[in-house]
Design goal:
The chain is an alpha/beta fold. It has a single domain, classed as Rossmann fold, CATH 3.40.50. It is built from 12 helices and 14 strands. The strands form 3 sheets. A 9-stranded mixed sheet has the order 1-2-4-3-5-6-12-13-14, sandwiched between helices. A 3-stranded antiparallel sheet has the order 8-10-9. It has a two-stranded antiparallel ribbon with strand order 7-11.
């Protein structure tokens, strides 16, 4: 399949458009210091951001049925039960690509990718159970990798997709690897966003300790500070990308009088229990038959050089290294998206690893930014 993605230069990327609209609204409100913003200011900025994105891909739902076979024999409900799962879908005739996020990600994380990759790709973002706008599972023990693989299978059946391309960030990458090993005829190719068959226990346990707790954001400044810190390793990003992710990962709570994360804490506690050991999917990796593109954050502590060297035993592996970036790049950089789209459409592995420097964005005005002024 050889298709020209037609992606506009980075100055006209979705992230750039959204950030310019956000900045205009911020200036129109008098450019108040971020620590003085109230929730009505926050709402106005989010409204401007949504306008800059044209609303983004539509959110839809389907009913997932959680099977008895994936329930714990002692704590499970003992019968299949339905859960309403959410997904974003821009529609179109492009190559369907289902994107699965990391531990606390939501479908809207992939909105910038969906907008920039169209019309070549139809990027469908999945809210795993217990995240975003999806329902929650009945028991903590229901949250595990096999469950996420089954949710992906049922989404594909719901969409009528016999096969597609998969994109996985972190936990989503683990899901994609296992799914491709189990259902090789249903996967054209995989894009791994800084994810691989092995993640060391030190990294997993550190991540589990950081996320498996309840947070309340009492004012917009706390949203900027805390969610910015959580994304600090995901590479240079403008205010619009960080705010879009934070807004959709949180919701307003009257009970807490602030914004709280839009996920089931039990899903994170289940991960904390699993994180007592390293992730080892090498047997699944050996069963992956399709081409794979790895987008590697050079400063990542999850996908190491040793892991990548071993992954190169897969004959169809292509790698893009992204400097100044750690675990799971935000996938909002127009030039990186363009290179990824071309890989999907060309169906040809790279002859050698490539390097794609992160785009330099203007200095942020809402989120902490310790870079020099540009």
């Amino acid at each position: 399949m050889r298709v020209n993605s037609g992606l506009a230069p980075v100055a006209r990327s979705a992230a750039h458009r959204a950030d310019m609209t956000l900045r205009e609204r911020y200036v129109a409100r008098g450019s108040p210091p971020p620590h003085t913003l109230h929730w009505d200011d926050y709402d106005a900025l989010v409204e401007a951001l949504a306008s800059g994105l044209g609303g983004g891909p539509a959110m839809r739902h389907f009913t997932y049925e959680h099977p008895v076979g994936l329930q714990d024999s002692d704590t499970g409900v003992g019968k299949p039960y339905p859960v309403r799962l959410a997904y974003s879908d821009p529609g179109g005739d492009g190559e369907p690509l289902i994107a699965i996020g990391g531990l606390t990600n939501v479908a809207q994380r992939f909105d910038f990718l969906a907008l920039d990759a169209a019309p070549a790709l139809r990027v469908i973002g999945l809210d795993l159970a217990g995240r975003g706008c999806s329902g929650w599972l009945a028991e903590l023990s229901d949250y595990h990798l096999e469950t996420y693989v089954e949710q992906l299978r049922q989404l594909m059946d719901h969409l009528g997709l016999a096969s597609c391309t998969l994109l996985g960030s972190s936990l989503g990458g683990s899901t994609a690897i296992r799914f491709a090993a189990r259902y090789p005829r249903r996967v054209h190719r995989i894009v791994l966003n800084d994810s691989g068959p092995y993640i060391p226990v030190e990294r997993r346990s550190r991540r589990a300790r950081a996320v498996a707790r309840h947070y309340v954001f009492r004012n917009p400044a706390e949203v900027f500070r805390r969610t910015g810190a959580a994304e600090k390793h995901s590479g240079p990003s403008p205010d619009a990308v960080l705010l879009h992710s934070a807004h959709h990962r949180t919701r307003w709570s009257d009970e807490e009088a602030g914004r709280v994360y839009r996920h089931d804490l039990r899903a994170l506690l289940a991960y904390r229990a699993e994180a007592r050991s390293s992730l080892d999917l090498w047997d699944d990796w050996a069963g992956v038959q399709c081409p794979v593109l790895l987008i590697h954050g050079v400063e990542s502590d999850a996908t190491t050089e040793e892991t990548i060297a071993r992954m190169h035993g897969h004959g169809g592996l292509s790698v893009i290294h992204v400097p100044e970036t750690g675990h799971t790049p935000t996938l909002s950089d127009g030039l990186l998206i363009d290179e990824m789209v071309r890989w999907v459409c060309d169906d040809r592995p790279f002859g050698e690893d490539r390097v794609r420097p992160a785009t330099e964005w203007p200095r942020r005005v809402l989120y902490p930014d310790d870079r020099r002024s540009l």
